[in-house]
Amino acid sequence: MTMTTTIARHAVAREDAALRRALAEADLPVADLDVSNGRFYRFEKNGVPVGVGGYEPYGADALLRSVAVDGAARGTGAGRVIVEALLDDMRQAGVTHAYLLTTTAADFFRHLGFAETARDGAPDAILSTPQATSICSSAALLRKAL
Fold first, then answer.
1. The whole model's pTM is what?
2. What pLDDT sits at residue 6?
C-alpha cells in the first residue's frame, strides 16, 4: 500500500514516551532531546501511527532530525511525506536552509533534494548542536535550500 493521501501531524513534547520509543527502535538518538529546542511530531494515517519526525530551528537554518518510520509503514512513501511536512513547517517558520546528519539514510535524503556539504561551510548554530558535536560527529552533513 502506498502513501497516496496526506497523513495527520500531531505535535508532541520532547518527553513524549511514544516519540522516545519510536526513535530508540529506529536506533536514533534520544539522549539530547532534553536540551533540544526542537519541534517534534507524530504522524498518523487513518489513526494508525506511521512515524515521527522533528527539527530544531536556528533562525534561517534548521536541523532536520528524528525522522523514523514505523516498520509497517516502511516502503509506503511515509518517510517522504513526513520529511515534506517538516520542510513545509520549516518554510512557514522562516527557515531557508535545512541541514541533517546521517550515517545510514543519505541516499534517501538525496532523493528528496538534499546534497552533501562540508561541515566547515555550515552555520555555527548547526555545528554546535549535540547532534553535530558528539552524537553524530562522524555522520555526513546534508543541506537543502528551501
1. 0.91
2. 65
Question: What is residue 91's DSSP assignment?
Answer: H
Residues of the chain with pLDDT under 70: 1-6
Rounded to the nearest angstrom, the gap between the alpha carbon of residue 135 and the centroid of all alpha carbons in its chain is: 15
Q: Is residue 2 part of a domain?
A: no
Asked if residue 1 is part of any domain, the answer here is no
How far apart (Å, rounded) are the C-alpha atoms in residues 89 and 35?
Answer: 21
Which residues, including other chains, have CB under 8 Å from residue 42's CB and lie 6 or more apart?
A: 9, 10, 12, 16, 18, 19, 22, 49, 51, 52
Expressed as residue numbers, the domain containing 132 is: 8-145
Whether the CB-CB separation of 69 and 30 falls below 8 Å is answered with: no
pLDDT of 69 reads 94
